[in-house]
Structure formats: structure tokens, C-alpha cells
Amino acid sequence: MTTSSTYNIASLKAYSPTSSNPWDLQKIHQLYRRLGFGATPEMVANGLNQNPLELIDQLIDEAINMPPTKAPDWGFWVKKDFDTAPKKMHTYRTELKNQMVQDFFTNNLRDRLTLFWSNHFVTEETVYRSPAYMYQYYHLLQFHAIGNFKQFAYDIGLNPAMLIYLNNFDNNKKKPNENYAREFLELFTLGIDNGYTQTDIIEISRAFTGWNKREERWGPIVFDPAKFDDSSKTIFEETGNWGYDDVIDILFKKRKVKIAEFICTKLYRHFVSPEINTVIITQLAQTFVDNDFEISPVLKRLFKSEHFFNDKSLGLLIKSPIDIQLSFFKELNFEIPTDFNFFDKVRGGCKELTQELFNPIDVGGWQEDKDWVNSSTIARRWDRVNWYLWSFWRYDKEQFRTFATYIMGGNSKDVALVSRSIIEYFLPKPLFENFDYEEALEIFKNEIPENHFEDGLWDLETESAPSQVAQLLAHIIKIPEFQLK
């Protein structure tokens, strides 16, 4: 555990706003940027008027009760159905990726978790190819996103996309394949070299045999007793004629604490900080175990805590490509022409910025945080968001004034306050140096004579205001803190 003076040592005690740790703009943005993909100005205003703990209950209950996205007509087609369909194969995959972006934009925690689990229980659609398998995988991620992790771990291994991707479809008693058994332990439940041996992997792979029967290409995959290894196996010191169900039961009985710690660590890194607080992880893991691996009690305890809302938790995470696109647009809440195809543009932006949906870089997934940004991707991130900004400008310049007026609560003549308020609306915490505010203020003034501000001639109703807001937003995009949440 780090001993840095900036380290967050706050507890999991329920957060209660105080004068020194208020429920404010930064915290409402932190909540929505991490539990969702940003918030509209109206969501921010409503959230600030709610009790934070009640708001978190509302977001979690919403996620629990939200049904999965409706299946497309082709969601259970087999290969020959696609071959005879009027559209090209890639069109169906693109449709689903665009739907995924729309779900992220429309929903909050359920689809934030859907993205998280897609980077945990990884598959790559470039391997299994079937748009139908892709939908069935997506459905499973949504269905279990905030459900029971043990049941999730069970179901994901029988999902056709996973059976093909990690070769368990090829695993039978005559030709064993250890790939899924290894990744199931290393990446999905325990972590690398954490409480198992190579013998356990071999024995589990034997217990996982038999899921090889498929009548048609890209059709359902079911169990074939003839290909199952029905001899005795020893898994985590337990001996018997174990099959798939037995492995899940034995693993979650014999290694429950290790599983809980591994999953809670990944959740903590995704939602709180890349630096792990082992005391918090231990407590969250115990909550996970005590609740039979239900995900929601862990999230409620974490998100409602002083630890989550501590000032030292602000701005610790680097926005992913999907985050930086969706949150910017959602927080502006601008109108766009219907033919702009925003969700398709975001999907393309994700691919350009190294987060191609349904295609993590490998079975280990995107490593996130600092891996999102380098000398090449940072410029592309600027360009992508800047392109959206000026597309909004070309469509309707007046909405830039409307945005500034809304977040100010009405018209204002205080040019410095307006500039600072817009900056702090998009950044996870105030800028460290006053010079940075001064630099932004000069950009916001936009060569308007100084006496217009000194003599009260300027306000947000001035003709130049929309252009000033646009220029300031273009500057904010390149502030390093804009990359953080």
C-alpha cells in the first residue's frame, strides 16, 4: 500500500456532506462520469438537489431493474440466414456496436458495468465472427451486469462467443484443450498464479469437456455426453467425476475469498483509482462473500462511502475513448442534425482511439487508465472532440449561449466568473494554478475591448457570446485535466 500524502485513506463509512466535504458540482460529475457516461446539465441540477445516498440507491435500483436491450431480428440467426440476407455481414455487427454506444449514452450504471464486464469476460468478435453470437454475448453482459457473479461466471463459459473464442468448443476427451480453463482462473475468477496449480488447470479442462455439439454453423452449442471426459478428477483437493457445474461450485466454495478480492480489486481500479487501498478491498470482498457474490451490495457500499467521495479520489482516472466522447456531448446536451449519426461517429472514434467495441486488444482486455493516452492518441483525442465541437457550432451557434446561461443560472456580466464556471463544469477538480484560469479568461474574452467588461457593456446576451463560449470549449479540450474523471 502506498504511503503517499495524497493517498485516499477515507473509510467505507456512509458519506454525509459537510462544509469541508460538500455535495457539489465536482462530486455530482464524479458520480455520473464514473457510474455512467456523464450527465446533462439538467441531471446535474437535479442531482445537486438530492440526497447523494438516495441518488446512488436510485441509480443502482435503476440498473437492477433495467431489461436488456431488445434482440434484433437477426439475434439468433445461423450462418445460412446471414448468407442469404440482403445486407453485408459487417453491417449487422456495426448495427450492434452503434446500439451499444446508444445504450451507453442513454443509460447509466447498468451499461457502465456492461462495458466493464466486456473488458473482464473478454471475447473478440473478429475471432468468432457471428453477429448473432455477438448479440447473445452482449445480452448476457447486460443481463448479469449487476446480478450474481457466480451465476455470471457459470453462464459466460457456455456462451457461444466464449466457447469459440477461448477454444472450449474444441475441448473434448480425445483432444483436451486447456485454454478456457486457464483463462477462467487467471483472468476471470482468481488472477494470475493466485490459488491454483497447473494440475488444477488440467483437471478443470477435463471437467469442461463436452460442450461441442452444434447442428448448424453459428447455431446453439450444447453438451455432448459422448465427448465428455467422465473419469475421476481432482480439483482444489476435491476428487470426483466432476463436470462443468461441479467446477463452478467447487471453485466458489474453496476459493471464495480469493475470487472476491480479485473481482473487488478490478471494480476498485475501474471506479475509484488505479492505486489500490488493500484495507478497502478486504472489506468490499467480505461484503461480496457475505452476500453470496451479489454485485449490488458491493457497489452500494463503495459508491455511498466517504472513500468514494473523498476529495483525494477526484480526477484519478483517465477517460477512455468512449468516455471522452460521450461525456463531452452529454454534458453539453446540444442538439445535432438527425443525419449526423452521432452514435456511429462515436463507434468510429472508439476504434480510432484504440477502444474498438467488442474487440479488446487481447484476452487480457484493455489495461485502461495510462494506456489510453500517449503522444499519438492524445492529439487524436483532441481532434476527435474538437471535430464534434465545431460540428455542433455549424448546426446551431445559439445553443452555446444557451449552455453558458443555463450553468450560470441566468445572464451574467462577470466574464471571469463565467469563464471559470465553464472550465470547472468540465474538469474533475479546480485547476491548480491561477495562471491557467487567467490564460483561459483571455481566450474567452476573444479580443473584445477590455472596456466592454469594465463598463458592464458585455454579458451573455452580447452577440459575441456564443463564439466566446465555443473558443473557450476548444481551449478546455486541450487542458490536461479534461482527460480525467
Looking at this protein, list some descriptive labels.
485 residues, two-stranded antiparallel ribbon, 2 strands, 55% helix, mainly alpha, disordered N terminus
What's the short story on this structure?
The chain has 485 residues and is mainly α. The chain has helices at residues 25-35, 41-48, 52-65, 79-83, 89-106, 109-118, 125-128, 131-144, 149-156, 160-165, 179-189, 198-207, 244-254, 256-271, 278-290, 295-303, 306-309, 321-332, 342-352, 375-395, 398-408, 415-426, 434-445, 450-454, 465-476; strands at residues 233-235, 238-240.
Strand order of the largest sheet: 1-2
Share of helix among residues?
Answer: 55-70%
User: Strand content of the residues, in percent?
Assistant: under 5%
How many helices? The count is: 25
How far is the first residue's CA from the last residue's CA?
23 Å
Description:
By secondary structure, the protein is mainly alpha-helical. It contains 25 helices and two strands. A two-stranded antiparallel ribbon has the order 1-2. A hairpin with a 2-residue loop joins β1 and β2 (238-240). The protein is globular, with a radius of gyration of 25 Å. The model is unreliable at 1-5 (pLDDT under 50).
